[in-house]
Amino acid sequence: MSLMKHEPAGKLRLGVLLSGGGTTLLNLLSEIEAGRLNAEVAVVIASRECKGAERAAEAGLDVHIIAYKEMPDNEAYSRKINEVLDSAQIDLACLAGFLSFWRIPSRYEGRVMNIHPALLPGFGGKGFYGKMVHKGVLASGVKVSGCTVHFVNNEYDAGPIIIQRAVPVAEGDTCETLATRVFEQECVAYPEAIRLFANGQLQIEGNVVRVLAPGT
User: Fold this and answer.
1) pLDDT tens digits along 15-73
2) Model's pTM, two decimal places?
């Protein structure tokens, strides 16, 4: 990915893609409502009927269910997602527990973020999602875990890293207790990464993200 820098232009229009409970979406909505994030959720895409889609609808958001199993192939599936995001004129797509593979077109390079519940590049890639991430962390014996916000490319969990926040792995941790501790940091890291993007402070050079000083 070549050097690129988003230029801020008013309120950021977000497209949120999810597959589960929608807790990350709720956190972003809370940050927006509190005035800490100058953005709006322009559209929500769910890969299946789920609690997250219900919560988005209850919040009055524009929700689209795009189920992979109803599409002939990944190309058609990705094209449908692109159409919905294009129609909503989003500035940034935010994956929020989205479990289907969306092949990102070149026009969205540097405009798609994901939050992963571990410190990449460890415990990432195909098959490492949700509880499986924390299970892998605990089985490995590492003493520190955390979360990673990164730009997304067309390889699982391989895009340029924007922000990481760490948490200790405690004696006696279960997947559930570790997940709770990690999610607390996700709620800080994701909005912060989006704020940096909105302020034009993120610059991608190859696979490295430079965080620029405000007004640079």
Assistant:
1) 999 999 999 999 999 999 999 999 999 999 999 999 999 999 999 999 999 998 899 99
2) 0.94
| Catalytic pick among 6, 116, 134, 150 | 116
Residue 12, φ and ψ in degrees, nearest 5: -80, 130
C-alpha 163/C-alpha 151 separation (Å) is 10
Per DSSP, 71 falls in state: S
All domains in the chain, ordered by first residue? 10-108 (3.40.50.170), 114-216 (3.40.50.170)
Tokens of 172: 């006696």
Contacts for 131-139: CB closer than 8 Å, 24+ residues apart = 131/175, 131/179, 134/175, 134/178, 134/179, 134/182, 135/175, 137/169, 137/178, 138/169, 138/173, 138/174, 138/175, 138/178
H/E run at residue 52: helix 51-58
| 116 has catalytic annotation | yes
Peptide bond into 8 cis (omega under 30): no
Residue 151 CA to residue 140 CA, distance in Å, equals 26
- CB-hemisphere CA count at 13 Å for 166? 7
Tokens of 122: 């460890």
**Residues 163/149, Cβ–Cβ less than 8 Å:** yes
Q: 116 CB contacts (<8 Å, ≥6 apart)?
A: 124, 133, 147, 148, 149, 150, 157
Report phi then psi at 69, rounded to 5: -65, -15
